[in-house]
Amino acid sequence: MVKTTSIIFMSVSLILSVVFPIVLALLLHRRIRFAWVSVIVGVSIFVVFQILTRIPLLVYLSKNAWYVEFSEQYYLLFGFLLALSAGLFEEIGRYIGFKVFLKNHLIWEDGIGYGIGHGGLESLFIGTAFLNEFVISVMINSKKVLPGDAQTIASTLINTPSYQFLLGGIERIFALAIQMGLSLVVLYAVKNNKFLFFVLAILLHTIIDFVGIMLVKNVWLAEIFVGLSTIASFVWILKSRNCFKANSIQM
Questions:
Q1: 170 near 16, Cβ under 8 Å?
Q2: Is 205 a member of any domain?
Q3: At what angle do helices 162-191 and 4-32 cross, to 10 degrees?
Q4: Count of CB atoms within 10 A of residue 184's CB?
């Protein structure tokens, strides 16, 4: 049986993943009046560069024996390359989004809008995993027959500590703030023709993902790191508004 607290925390994480980005978008739009097109472009870029490109590529590679062997034998290098691929795909996508599709919307407010679109869809996408876990858990507790692919994760759902299901939802909030911060870094690069800020965004994205991968077996250390990254992102989000107005950063 899956613990009741685990199912409750799955529900909370599902709500945080699906409802929170939508509510945040509505509240921030009311407050700072970003253009909705920036959100749409953020959503579209994530679809193209992650859901339709990077993720299918990784799934295809994972079916090859050499890829699996490489991931097991060279775990550190594999983890770095995996993180780098996320940094490259997403930040190049962001750059194209601002440079091509939002060239008339290069203000701080639209950077926030883009980040909500990009990070919000990521949260919704990952939220499907919480939904699957919730449905399977209910089926387990109802003693219903599970489909073959669900049986493989049944023991994991039963044996995982309840709090970890809640941490998944909290992490989505953290990730959304980080995505918004990275969006503003790339926006600043495009708006002021500072290519080094684009490189910085790739580097920051890669580091955050790589450390997260390396700490995957230590949940608390991983969450502390992501939490610190979120605080840094939040500070940058607030401070950067004046930077966009004054163009005060030099590099």
A1: yes
A2: yes
A3: 20
A4: 25
- Domain membership flag for residue 186: yes
Q: How far apart are CA 64 and CA 236, in angstroms?
A: 41
Domain containing 194: what range? 4-246
pLDDT, one tens digit per residue, over 23-58 is: 999 999 999 999 999 999 999 999 999 999 999 999
Helix axes 108-141, 148-159, angle to 10 degrees: 100
> Cα–Cα distance between 47 and 184 in angstroms, integer?
19
Structure tokens at 110: 């639209």
Write down the residue that tokens 């529900």 correspond to: 11
Task: Tell me, yes or no, whether 251 lies in a domain.
Answer: no
Give how far Cα 181 sits from Cα of 65, 118, 171, 177, 238, Å.
37, 11, 15, 6, 9
Tell me how many domains the chain contains: 1
Residues above pLDDT 90, as percent of the chain: 85
**Nearest Cα residue to 152 out of 174, 167, 168, 132:** 132
* 228-250 tens-digit pLDDT: 999 999 999 999 999 887 654 44
Token representation of residue 32: 């700072």
Residue 44, pLDDT score: 98
The answer to whether residue 63 is domain-embedded is yes
* Separation between Cα atoms, residue 19 and residue 184, nearest integer Å: 23
**Entry pTM:** 0.92
